[in-house]
Amino acid sequence: MNKESRIKSQDVEKSEEEIFEVAQEAARKAGEVLLPYFQATGLEREIKDDKSFVTKADLESEAIIIKTIKSKFPDHAILAEESGEVKTASPYQWIIDPLDGTANFLNGIPIFGVSIGVYKNGEPFAAAVCNPVTRELFSVARGRGAFFNGKTVTVSNQEAAKGLVTFGLSKDVADREHFTRVFVGLEKVFNKRRHLGATALEMAYIARGGIEATVSFGSKRWDHAAGAVLILEAGGKITDFSGKPWKLGETHFIASNGVSHAALLKVVSSAK
């Protein structure tokens, strides 16, 4: 490698390291925005066309995230839940959920967070997920590992019979009927079943080794983008309902520690 190529390579590495740092910074700042609203009462809410909630907290959280990203990477593409998509020629796209678990947030349940995923040419690259109430920060950079409050984490090695599985639901009737069949079918397969209502955090918990699996019966890209990066880097597995490797944009999938995946996939696919 000549000097010019070496310098260029070093510049790329520096830039990519900065992406990892900025993702964490943006998640922390957004968490600081959300926390006072969570501690307050009577937060006004609006209902969007898809029947989901949006609040002043969502909007302010998203604004600080985008401001933080653009201060360092003004040419990067962004997809955010509230403000939509801004496409650019950059290979990097930031996918933002400024408040994952809004219903929990509005009802005083501390299971919510900020979710920021970064993809390079459509492939998982970096992410940060923050729960400001519990002071949990999950972060990841491709090839460097997944981290929980700065410490390296990996998925668990628990089999389904000793594990916990969660679920994410869309409002589609067919999805809910499929979920009902799966929930019943898993009664004797998984030890515990839960619906926590915060996809990004649930996926982060898988990466940390606290949950064994989650099943998405329809979710948005901003719901799962960050969590997918975390799980894959932490040694987990994500597939669609037919067992094919997951790709960004697929809304129905199984994410797991890998050990429990086959048992879960069998129930999900047979319950269609």
UniProtKB/TrEMBL annotation:
One Gene Ontology term from the biological process aspect of the record: phosphatidylinositol phosphate biosynthetic process
Reaction equation(s) it catalyzes: a myo-inositol phosphate + H2O = myo-inositol + phosphate
Residues that hold Mg(2+) according to the record: E81, D97, L99, D100, D223
Any GO molecular function: metal ion binding
Cofactor(s) this protein requires: Mg(2+)
Main EC class the enzyme belongs to: hydrolase
Stored Pfam families: Inositol_P
Entry EC number(s): 3.1.3.25
Keyword tags: Hydrolase, Magnesium, Metal-binding
PANTHER family associated with the record: INOSITOL MONOPHOSPHATASE, INOSITOL-1-MONOPHOSPHATASE-RELATED
Annotated family: Belongs to the inositol monophosphatase superfamily.
Protein name: Inositol-1-monophosphatase
Species this protein is from: Candidatus Kaiserbacteria bacterium GW2011_GWA2_49_19
